[in-house]
Amino acid sequence: MTDSRELLDLFDRRVRGDLDAMADGAPAERDGPVVRVTFPGSGFIGTPADTGYRGARLDALIARQREHFAARGLPVEWKTYGYDRPHDLTERLRAAGFVPEEQETLLVAPTATLAGLPTEVDGVVFRETTDAADLAAIGRLHTEVWNADWSWIADDLAGRIVAGADRIRILLAEADGMLVSAAWLVMRPAAPFAGLWGGSTLPEWRRRGIYRALVARRARIAAERGYWYLQVDASEMSRPVLERLGFQALTTTTPYVWSP
Fold first, then answer.
1. What is the rounded average pLDDT of the residues 58-74?
2. pLDDT tens for residues 129-175?
3. Cα Rg of the chain (Å, integer)
4. Domain 109-252 belongs to what topology?
5. How confident is the model over 86-139, as pLDDT tens digits?
6. Mean pLDDT to the nearest integer, 205-218
7. Other C-beta atoms within 10 Å of 9: how many?
8. Cys-Cys crosslink for 173: which of 69, 165, 181, 254, Cβ 3.0 to 4.6 Å?
9. Where in the sequence is the signal peptide annotated (predicted)?
């Protein structure tokens, strides 16, 4: 695989530095060095590794994003990475009322490597969907797995489909007529990275190769569409699994969230 520093530089240029790549098809605008994205039900702030702002000027930039979404009654996530500058960025986010969520790891792997993994699991049927009933079922699945209300994910996925069906592919894994896992692939125009999201699986159906098969199926789609790499913001639970499949850790990433 390409050197991790080169991959991170590529990610900076083609994802973090590109408005369309960060927006994932949602309405977006620039405010100075940051990209402000409005998804159904939430906001997102994407930034370069260094905005170039310091001190009071950085505080004002942060406050402006918070107030923009506060006026719309929406929570907003400011996405940070382990190499962001200045060093006191996260302290200033906290001071503005942003709360850190669980740290994840940015993982990357070549699509060509992952596309060769097994795509079938005995007793499990895989299919793609854009159906509203299936999206609602994905929300119920995630709510059960994470013991938190994930019903919002149905609207999020529906919004992404409306914004551009060619940008997202949603896969389901079913057994005995029941949804046991779901995952989706987010494709960014003009960027070499496609994103893996979802993958939550009912506890009794884990360790059977379902997660691996969903990765492989999405890798094949991404490869067919000309994407060089798959990218995942991995939890501590999924990171070891993904590294065994061939993913490489580039850095950490922590969402800072402000809620009205």
1. 98
2. 999 999 999 999 999 999 999 999 999 899 889 888 889 999 999 99
3. 18
4. Aminopeptidase (3.40.630)
5. 999 999 999 999 999 999 999 999 999 999 999 999 999 999 999 999 999 999
6. 96
7. 13
8. 181
9. none
CA distance 123 to 115: 21
Count of beta carbons in the 10 Å neighbourhood of residue 240: 10
Tokens 């993913």 appear where? Answer: 247
Q: In whole angstroms, what separates CA 259 from the centre of its chain?
A: 19
Q: Are 186 and 199 in contact (CB under 8 A)?
A: no
Residues with Cβ < 8 Å from 225, sequence gap 6 or more?
187, 194
Backbone angles phi, psi at 58, to 5 degrees: -70, -40
- H helices of the chain, in order, are 4-11, 19-23, 55-70, 89-95, 111-114, 132-146, 152-163, 210-224, 239-245
**Boundaries of every domain in the chain:** 4-104, 109-252
Residue 17 pLDDT greater than 80, yes or no? no
182 in Cβ contact with 171 (< 8 Å): yes
pTM of the model: 0.90
Beta bridge pairs of residue 34: 31
> Dihedral sign, CA of 65, 19, 100, 158?
positive
Which two three-digit tokens encode residue 108?
A: 């990357």
C-alpha distance across the termini of the chain, in Å: 43
Distance CA 176, CA 138 (A): 16
Closest CA relative to residue 178, chosen from 156, 153, 152, 210 = 210
Q: Which residues contact 176 (CB under 8 A, 6 or more apart)?
A: 123
